Amino acid sequence: MALAFHGRRYFSTAMANGGAATYTAAIGRASAVDAGKFGEKVVFKWVRAPILGVRYSSTLTLDEKKEFDSRADGGIKTASTKLEAVSYWGVEPAKVAKHDGTEWKWSCFRPWDTYKANLSIDLNKHHPAVKFMDKAAYWTVKALRYPTDIFFQKRYGCRAMMLETVAAVPGMVAGMVLHLKSLRRFEHSGGWIKALLEEAENERMHLMTFMEVSQPKWYERALVFTVQGVFFHAYFLAYLLSPKFSHRIVGYLEEEAIHSYTEFLKEIDNGTIENVPAPAIALDYWQLAPESTLRDVVMVVRADEAHHRDVNHFASDIHCLGRELKDMTAPLGYH
Predict the structure, then answer these.
(1) What pTM was estimated for this model as a whole?
(2) What tens digit of pLDDT does each residue of 154-170 get?
(3) Which 3-state string (H, E, C) describes 117-181?
(4) Cα four-point dihedral sign 294, 297, 303, 304
């Protein structure tokens, strides 16, 4: 009876450089062992298995191809490295096209994520701060606006970027808390998890758009790190303690955002801020006309903020009635 020991098994995510694997085995010495009373000899063949590489954390292999091009001016050779990522699991990005059949060039969102903003929404709605909780939320937001006005003054492009880095936090925090709550209680959320995450994603797209219009300075980027870190932890704690207070704060924050974007439009109309063509990402995300300008972008962003205002005041009202969000159907796709 012959037994072959092939050693520990190693797994490779792919073969290096896309070539075929070469299987070699070095057979060591064979020794005969007396099997004792059975009167048989068992031969052990020690075989070293081929090691194709140890898999660590990545599921992708990179096939690095270096191409050397000789240029006419001086004959200097330059190396351009082309990295091709081949998925070990066979997952390849889907090819997406626009409605007119042309290639979709954005990876951060897809055609089915785009929409036309509802510009007819009432921008003047306001939740009266009557109860103590509402007054506390209202004046908290007013206190936060004061240093913002001093720092940015009339630089509304940079102000919009800073505003969106903060505005995208509450939806993510609330969605995360509701997600974990749904898992703990084995219950549905009424669609509110998705609705709040949609809000966070929409706010992030505002930021990606204004990044094409105005680039923040280094100290503004440093300020974003500080403000986002403080606001995330503060809002997370507040949401755990009182969701109705937290949603009310966001409702008032959105009211302030509407005011800020209205002032932004005034500066554009006065000629203080140049009405440049709308960024390409804005044209596709909001399905704007090709000739759209920065003014059109601010208009649709302001309409989005008005919708977020309504959703968060609505969520706070549900909690004020002693109900939970899951008891009311979430306003999914409310733009």
Answers:
(1) 0.72
(2) 777 778 888 888 899 99
(3) CCCCCCCCCCCCCCCHHHHHHHHHHHHHHHHHHHHHCCCHHHHHHHHHHHHHHHHHHHHHHHHHH
(4) negative
